[in-house]
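Re: How this chain folds, sequence and tokenised backbone to follow
Notation: Tokens come from a learned vocabulary of local backbone shapes, not from coordinates.
Start of record: The labelled sequence and token lines come straight after this line.
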Amino acid sequence: MLYFLLIQLWIIDHMYQYSLESFTTFFFKAIDKTEESEELAIRVPNLIQMIRIVIYQWVSRGLFERHKQIFMSMLTFRLMQKGLLDVNYTVQQLNFLINCPITTAVANPLKKWLPDKAWYAIQKLIEIEGFEQFATNLSKDAPARFQMWYNELDPEDRALPLEWRSLEAQPFQKLLVVRCMRPDRVTTALGNFIRNTLPKGGDFVDCDNGISSVGVLEFAYQDSSSITPIFFILSPGANPVKDVESICIKEKMDPIKHLHTIALGQGQDVVANAKLDMAHKEGHWVMLQNVHLMPDFLLELEKRL
């Protein structure tokens, strides 16, 4: 299930490509890290949990920040669909959360404080069983109290007015209201939902949050090998050289003598190959920059590794 989830990530960005071989590497790494037990009832859940978090960490470290929650949500929703999480929901509700359809059939009577898009989304929400009275309660029964909830800094953590207070015990259904009225808070609300729903959900939501870039690189270094290099995908202004140098020093190597940095360009493939040969014999590190300028060289590089 995990493998088929992550190979769908290319739909979000074509850069997200994962081989079965790399997945298998981390799969067995997770098995090795799992605490051993003779009891099957303990061993199997421990294996599942460890494989889940190890695969998630590996994949999330290669995702843009804005895509991490998408992967986390995909994982959570798939487990819900398989009946492996204790969540009361319907397929219609899940589709609504993802797509949030609207209808403009009824004019917005609360224009002073409620955006039209929110009202139009609510008109579709009331088509879902259990939410039939929501628009009436909102516009006629207690508009002032709903406005107070709407204006909260963290409405996802506040109880809704009237009998909708009962949604505190139905967190997934409350997500639908947040999705309609305060879409700006959906990211936070969904993160809270995953934290409380997924087993050890905090490990997923907070994954690497308290770790510096050097710390994340250290983990990546442990996952690399002489034939599995580390690949840096940079945003403008980012420069990982200092982080690599700090890891170099931790490994009791001299960055000046043992770390060779080559900026690829015309004719530099000869220099890069010479440095790779020398580093292979001496146990040094080679850092190739601007690899996008010489894509054909990367095919040769893979064979050399």
Observations:
- The chain has a mean pLDDT of 93.
